[in-house]
Structure prediction request, 474 residues.
Amino acid sequence: MRTYRKYLFLLIFFCDAAQAQLPPPVAQALARAGIAESGVGLYVHEVGAAEPVAVHRGDQPLNPASVMKLVTTYAALELLGPAHQWSTDLFTDGELQQDTLAGNVYLKGGGDPKFTIENFWLLLRALRAKGVRQIRGDLVLDRSLFTTAHPDPGQFDNEPLQPYNTTPDALLANFKTFTLTFKPEADGKAVNVTVDPPLPQLQIVNQLTVSDGPCGGLWMNRIKTQAQDAGDSARLTLAGPYSRQCGEQANYYSLLSHRAYAAGLFQYLWRELGGTFSGRVREADVPPAAAKIASQRSLALSEIVRDINKFSNNVMARQLLLSVGLTTGASGGGAQSTPERGAQAARQFFASKNLPMQQLVIENGSGLSRIERVSARDLGQMLLSAWRSPVMPEFMASMPLVGVDGTMVRRLKNSDVAGQAHIKTGLINGVRALGGYVLDARGKRVVAVLLINHANAHNANLVQDAFLRWVHAR
Prediction:
């Protein structure tokens, strides 16, 4: 018996030691990148197997960057259901007299993560189809569904104009984004700048000059921007050289408050549809007696999560966490949701799945955070649980396919891994991460997680590639 116990102890010891070692190709790539192994969490587990294939610092809490979106989208698919839709509604407290609506129009935000300009147009077109041409009353915005404690879009990296920093809102309209198109004039003496949507609340001051230098992939970095954003109006000054070799290019900017953007877009689209409006814009809850007169449904959640994960859309992920906070799993009462309620609902859901997720810290659910944390083991175990879930097809299909689409379209394109792995990546300063599913060379599905937190993490692309190749070919 003692001999048996001795061999059993040695077997467990050597298995644990083997699991603690990094795969040689990964260790070598880390050394070349100048990344210490202490800043790496790794977890690899074949679906259906009792034990993981490899674990390195699996219980160390690490920042996952945008890989956190896997946590948010899986919880949302389970709690809300893949067919879940959001509704943006119009109400009125007035009456239609011929083509005039004598009363206020209430625009109530339902938290739609993708209420684009096209959907806004369809909502107003439905109002016009009811015979309304003139609105003789106020436009009242109801944005009461969500409450966020950090409305400053520059809080994360002091880049408030970047669309990836757009904050969530119950009435998130068109991602609160403007598309600026740059094109040298035919005479080559000036650069023409056009704005879409052309809202009067935004003024462009064009001080760009034409240059003869090469365009380059980072042409927008040579354009100096200065914004004076008062919330209800903004002025954007553009200065610096623009190469004529760039031809026509476009860039995106997030400006104005949510209130001003939604109100301006309403007025612009309503005029475009032939409607008139001369009232005030204000904010209030929809009164109980108001009647619903038009509604626009969103895409299904199964389609929303594809945009979130394949293209790593931060504000959509943040919107989704707030919607998760409205589920019955979150305590606290009231109809409003906060990021804290969303995080609470997600933790309760994971507990119900026997996933303790003890190292999980959720701030906003997008990974655009310095405090969000998860361990490689917890994330790997969550992915194994998701594989057994009824929403597995929607969840896995939402991830970028290596070498094929999304944020992985150019990665490992000519390798054996191309088309064989659904992988979500994440990157912020000091962080490179990935997680997902790999179909290996034997036809076995494998959960793969690699989290790197290190000052040299910007060198980690080759480490990630070596890791995915090893998982596929092991």
